[in-house]
Amino acid sequence: EKGGFEHFMMKEMYEEPKVIRDTFNPRVKNGELVLDNINITKEDIEKLQKIHIVACGTAYHAGVVGKYIIEKLCRISVEVDVASEFRYRDPLITDKELTIIISQSGETLDTLFALREAKKKGSRIVSIVNVVGSSIARSSDDVLYTWAGPEIAVASTKAYNTQLTALYLIALDFGLKKGTISKQEADEILSSLREIPSGIEAILEDKESIQKFAHRHYNAKSIFFIGRSLDYALSMEGSLKLKEISYIHSEAYAGGELKHGTIALIEKGTLVVCPMTQDALFDKMVSNIREVKARGAVVLAITQNRHKEELEKTTDLVLTIPDVDSLVSPVLAVTPLQLFAYYMALEKGCDVDKPRNLAKSVTVE
Ligand code: M6R
């Protein structure tokens, strides 16, 4: 049932190209977006004053990416919350606002109750769910299914890539309806998204350098992930994946926040992982790398091929991803982070598929 792989987690990472295609292809017909089960009209979008995104864990991290892209493409303000906070804080929400709920299982209790809270306050609910007919899917006004198939490993991998794919599709649909992006801009983003699956295939082919790096560093006590903008959102997911399955303490930080405190923790040998896929912020991240290197950090950078040479001078290892556009890079750049967590856990002898203290679906508080 593991299809020849040692763990479900690896099998599920290998499924990423296929499930992204399954989530993407049926929704783009002859160049037009067809979001089945989402019946939001141009008029609905024009009336929208705000969007909330609510989820837990990995789905929440997908939501953080969603905030950046929806705000960029639709010029609507987006608030992202973890469900357990949202449901208890008497959130300010009106019937002119939309709530996007993200959940792989569709059964996460906090997320379901957050949905009910938003609904009670009059918000329309769009959900991005993987399990057909799940409680969250059934309680929503509109559903965009991710076609990731069953995810068995506790650590979520392929579901995240498909949640992001769904969020890009929604952002593009809303942006086109609202007129904040042109058809040509949308087409360019769609063609960048179309390149992602083969990009992931290339990353999976070339995973040995990650494995070797993990072999050298699995004794790390604490690891920092730093990034800016979409890479910050990605860092959060990379950090969660690592701590969840390898039990190594780790934190994700916005590059620009380091000097406001956390840099005090960087000492000789501290491992710092830097996703650097945002061209507009590349130089800012190079400065961050200099700051941590000056304090003795070991730096692993993850970037597009086009930046490899430049970064080799300032870092200890550069992992490259294919030359994809900055806006869609998280869908692709998460895979090396998942592989990194996987190999660190494997080196440490951890139970990769069933990490301690965790359940696949959290249906209790
Ligand atoms: O089924 P859901 O997407 O609602 O689950 C949310 C989280 O429990 C889940 O993503 C969790 O954080 C994963 N174990 C992370 O790998």
From TrEMBL:
Subcellular location: Cytoplasm
EC number per UniProt: 2.6.1.16
Domain SIS: 41-180, 213-355
GO terms for cellular component: cytosol
Keyword Transferase found: yes
Active site per database record: 360
Keyword Repressor: no
Leading EC class: transferase
Chief localization: cytoplasm
Function: Catalyzes the first step in hexosamine metabolism, converting fructose-6P into glucosamine-6P using glutamine as a nitrogen source.
Listed name of the protein: Glutamine--fructose-6-phosphate aminotransferase [isomerizing]
Residues of the full protein shown: 244 to 608 of 608
